[in-house]
Write a structure and sequence with these properties.
Blueprint: E1 4-7, E2 10-13, E3 27-30, H1 36-40, E4 47-50, H2 53-58, E5 61-67, E6 70-76, H3 90-111, E7 116-127, E8 136-146, E9 150-158, E10 164-176
Antiparallel strand pairs: 1-2, 3-4, 5-6, 6-8, 7-10, 8-9, 9-10
Length: 178
């Protein structure tokens, strides 16, 4: 086991490289419109993180994106995300839903032959049940409607027994990647 970072009195394992000033998992790629524009230098100075922060920080993993406009993501709610009562803070549940909804919006655009970046215009999350530490959460997101510039997406976040713990909706704005 690696060094331990003390956060809020809880010991958080640093075996994967997390901790103050450390970024060993983060690979930064210079991006200029993503692939073809990378070589041309069309957008100098822009970077994206590969893999995305949601995978590194939350431990969220996309487990299904086989159907355009629908994705399924999973994560384990660990003690780093808990309040003093041992319940996961809502922002982390919302972040999981956002990861699922954003990727669903992108897959819908890809199916229409477009390469886009999707950014939130707004997001709402309704919390339906408390999430204790150790719960395996699954977020299933579906595009309700997508147009040329905007996609409206909804997600259900459920525990391992299939009980909904949160419902979320978001409007994403599309920007073409080139």
């Amino acid at each position: 086991m690696g060094p331990v970072c003390r956060a809020g009195g809880l010991g958080v394992s640093d075996k994967a490289g997390h901790g103050p000033g450390r970024r060993p998992w983060r690979t930064w790629a210079r991006v200029t419109g993503v692939a073809p524009a990378l070589a041309s230098g069309a957008m100098p100075g822009r970077t994206i993180q590969v893999p995305p922060a949601c995978e590194l920080t939350l431990g969220a993993v996309c487990v299904d994106k086989s159907e355009p406009g629908r994705t399924v993501w999973r994560m384990v709610a660990d003690e780093r995300f808990a309040n003093p009562a041992g319940i996961v803070q809502g922002g982390f549940v919302s972040a999981l839903a956002d990861s699922a909804m954003g990727s669903a919006a992108v897959t819908a655009a890809l199916a229409a032959g477009r390469k886009v970046v999707a950014a939130n215009a707004e997001m709402k999350t309704s919390f339906l049940a408390a999430v204790p530490v150790g719960t395996v959460l699954t977020a299933t997101a579906t595009v309700v409607r997508a147009g040329r510039r905007v996609a409206f997406v909804e997600a259900d976040v459920a525990d391992a027994s299939g009980v909904s713990v949160a419902r979320a909706s978001s409007t994403y704005l599309y920007t073409d990647r080139g």
